Amino acid sequence: MRITTCALLLATTLVSNSEAAFGGSRLPMSMGTGNSFGRVFRISTWGESHGGGVGVTIDGCPPRIPLSRNEIQVDLDRRRPGQSRITTPRNEADSVEILSGLTPGPNTAEDEDAGITTGTPIAMLVRNKDQRSQDYLENDMNVATVPPTNHLIKHQPKKKIDVAYRPSHADATYDAKYGVRAVAGGGRSSARETIGRVAAGAVAKKILHMYNGIEILAYVSKVQDIGCDVNDDTFTLDDVDANIVRCPDQESAAKMLDRIDEIRKAGNSIGGVVTCVARNVPAGLGSPVFDKLEADLAKACMSIPAAKGFESGDGFAGTLLSGKDHNDEFYVDPETGATRTSTNRSGGIQGGISNGENVVIHVAFKPTSTIGQVQKTVTRDGREVELRGKGRHDPCVLPRAVPMVEAMMALVLVDALMMQQAQCELFPNEASSEEKPNPMGTTARYEGEPRHMNDPVTSPSGPVSQRVDEE
Q1: Mind listing the pLDDT tens digit for each residue in 113-144?
Q2: Cα distance between residue 60 and residue 126, in whole Å
Q3: Per residue in 400-437, is it b (16+ CB within 10 Å) or e — as a string?
């Protein structure tokens, strides 16, 4: 009897990834499809917008990492709703509870919520407090109306429908996939799911900073056609949070805010771009072919609700340049002796592997789907109706997307770092310094006198000629 590979894979998945009780027997369960991310540092998020709460389980976190609830809460406070007039007015404190994975540490007496990681799974929970399902069941969905069939009869009542799909939302596709959906709050498609990512990202940020002083900062770089002028090497967290738009360019931020307010008052929504920068990233993270660093970052960021585009480095703008203009030329830093690039159009990644410069990405976010204007749609049973959203929604997701993008960058980098340690640094490279490649990047330093600093390699006729045959 032949069993196809697909059938065998499906059977294996159903057996290993299901939890059921049949006749008193219970099968082991792992997190289901699409809810987990990462390979070594692995997270699984759970919960829904209008359920009891949302959270995350982190598996693979190194032991002996000092960690406190307050460190995680800082990032959750930047993500939470109700921060300003340009975010959803839902009133949630988003107070995190650490349920497992910590043991009391030396600073526990000063901070009862502090401890050190044990290396076992870390579970974190944020309870929902201000979920208003009626906003969806009585307003968003129940305001859908079937247009009058007889236009000659004045004041003909419109028939109300409570199962209408919001245009460009996940309502229809969830129904198509599962045959059932959580109407209130959008269930797992809600941005509230990102609480778990941001909480896990805070842990990842802590590990990255301890390892190499890695700093991850994001900001709103564009609202519709309004851009900004920001130095990615020098802007700070205080610069980002100095205004409710989260753009370090204060002049541009004011213009962005005016545009968002204009759109918000019209009952509409608006999109734009978030730029994220990771500083002090060591060279060597990421793998060739399918696990390139920018490929992992693209998947991570495109999984954020409302994300519709991704760029690494110069991205699409680089297509307007020639190779000579786009290439990042190398030089040797006279102070550190490390190999550096004079520009960073590659965004800190070359060949899918970090080169030690700042990792720079851009994530495009669409306008929020749910708006306060009438739109045409259909009901679950295929009737054409009109819909006006009246729940609590962000007119612009960008300010709250900033910590989400930071979290996904951190999760990708910490996973890549641990993969690098496992594969390439399990055994120390004991070659002599002359046999090793010159160290690369902003934090790298050549031990000893920099090599060839005063002996540039040139041929009698000028630059070195190198023949490379590529497909």
Answers
A1: 789 999 999 999 999 886 554 444 444 445 44
A2: 21
A3: bbbbbbbbbbbbbbbbbbbbbeeeeeeeeeeeeeeeee
